[in-house]
Design a protein that fits this description.
Distance between the termini: 49 Å
Strand content: 15-25%
Structural class: alpha+beta
Number of helices: 17
Largest sheet: 8 strands, antiparallel
Number of strands: 19
Length: about 600
Amino acid sequence: MFGLPIFSREDLLNALRALLHPLAAFQSPGGARLQLSAGAAIFDRAAAELEGFARPLWGAVPAALGGSDVLDWARVREGLSNGCDPEHEEFWGWPGSEDQRLVEMAAIGFALLAVPERIWNPLPERSKALVSSYLRRCAAQIFSPNNWMFFRLLIVAGLARVEPDNPVDDAGRYVQEIEALYLGEGWYRDGPGRRVDHYNGFAFHTYALLLTCFAPEKPAIDHLARARLFAPNFAAWFDPEGRGLAYGRSMTYRFAMTAFFGAYALAEDGDPALPWGCLKGIILRNIRWWSRQPIADRDGVLSVGYVYPNPMMAEDYNSACSPYWALKAFLPLALPRDHPFWTSEEAPLPQDLPLMQQAPGFLLQRSATHTVALSAGQEGPQFRHGAEKYAKFAYSTQSPLSVEMREASLLTAALDGALGVQAEGRPWVTRHGCASMQTSNAALISIWHPYPDVEIETLLCPHGNGHIRRHRILTPVPLVTVEGGFAVERTDGQAEVCEIGRDSSWVLGGHASCIVDLNSLRLPRIHAPASGINLAYPRIWVPQLLGNIPAGETELLCWCTCDERPADRCNSQSSEHRASLLEVLRQAVESVRTSQ
């Protein structure tokens, strides 16, 4: 896929073939496992190697539906039979409750649903009995109370397709539990707590729409209607270059973030919520952008990471095979060549996409070059780097987030898009969740507690090509604070220029990043944190503001931008610029008050 032109259906098919080709060398003798690395995830090695068997199906099944075989299906059937056979040395192991094996069975359920003539019909009767027994044992387990509940629905639907006379008891289990996660306007929360992320697109909606398309018994819920609501909201997470917001967990799945648009194109039987050319453009621009990034190892195998190999940002459940969930992006290959998705000209994103998004707590800023999401702050304490992935103040398609080194001090942390605080004798912390949130079309206000006895009210509002942050801090003890703007790639002065003014710091490189102190309480600096922590750039600069605040009440004000217009550097220090920012801030506060 790397360096390939991706403008047509044939181009997309060639990209899929290029991604799958390197995997054959790592297949086990019996075909049931893929052995890509000696590294490990939190689950056992058999489950990790099952990932490698199952995840290529997310690309191979739609290709087969469209008339192209990109895998040796005889070899797939051999591996499926051996993996389900407890007497075979490549047996995957019996599944338990909330087991990784349940995740991977969803791809097999999808294959049974969509292409039984390739994966099921030619199997010998003994192999059919083994596969059926294994899948039924999976269906009997407990699935995690989040997007995992769809896995059971896909397994059961696949069995219903190939064994219609032997239904699974309680086939609709979890339907009500999934419905309880629906927030309206097409959004779902991914399990307990406040977490609305990319799993909306590449999990909830994608699985629901596949069931709508292929399940013998259609879902009672109108998932297509929900997808129509979701499509324009989620499209706003992408920028004109094709990049999507890196937000939340599991970003090593990379271009899986466009899977929703392919699943929606498959399911839509009327006028689409976005023009066909727009849907096509979102997917192809995104995959084109990824095709220019160093996301694979020398042998062409996808690495764990985002823009480059980077285990630092990964989840504890990411094995070497995990990145192949990215192949969900190839769902459009199931569409025939004469479908309007393929016959339409690739079109840009509409200008009128929703910018205020209540469910994720986003206020979006879209420009000709990038998209920024101001974030009211979600919760992800159970995940590695959960505060960075869910609770920064701003997320950018141009300047993705950094995760923190656990041993970093407050003064060595990256803190891009974040305010770090530290009281003497206590660990340094950033926003990791919110006690309350208020939103309007002009601003977001959140209240958070870095320590139980310290309260911070943060207001975020867009202004021009940047945004204003106001923090009202109420503390019984003095605090050290460090606040960061957006990260910029660091090339040690070969391409970027770093400047520090009286109240501001600028980095001008591939793009600009600036942070300006608006009430002159802090000192600016340009910081070079540890390498390998940013999702896009192996080494970064972060413009920051440092300040000590006393016990009592203090207000911190700043303006940040990651725009590519360095001329604003000259204006950022002017009294007129500051006065306009403060007036915008006053109006934003009033807007939030009147909207509640």
